[in-house]
Amino acid sequence: MEESTFIRSVxxxxxxxxxxxxxxxxxxxxxxxxxxxAILEEGxxxxxxxxxxxxxxxxxxRVGDSEVSLCDLVAGQTFGELSIIEDGVASATLRAVAETxxxxxxxxxxxxxxxxxxxxxxxxWRAIAVELRRxxxxxxxxxxSYFEINRNLVENATFREAxxxxxx
Length: 168
Prior knowledge:
CATH superfamily: Jelly Rolls
Number of helices: 6
Low-confidence stretches: none
Structural class: alpha+beta
Helix content: 40-55%
Largest sheet: 4 strands, antiparallel
CATH architecture: Sandwich
Order of helices and strands: HHEEEEEEHEEHHH
Number of strands: 8
CATH class: Mainly Beta
Number of domains: 1
Mean pLDDT: 90
């Protein structure tokens, strides 16, 4: 599939016209990663918006001394949005689960594009807001299910007894 056709299918660029898509596609840089390769490391600099072209990426965060898997990304999904909004630091670790291709638009290219295409900038920031809203609602569902699990455990007498025995 040609890059401009692929980019047209990405949620952040759905409303872009042909000229805008061509400019975005021209600014993208392709990177390839082998299974297990780190694409971004939590806390490290990230100065680009990324689109997963092919493969699969696992998103995880450090919690204490553990790495907790949050989700997997598939072709067409984007990452790095928080870095372009805030401080240019990766909020999670992303690792290739399979052979993976990623298209990246460096932050300076994105800023220049948005300045030169104000109509596209409006479409882009709206799409970012919609995507972040979707992710927030998804996170709310996960937190709600964890709360339910915790409540059920705490209300279970057998669990409370076993927990008390372990903590003596």
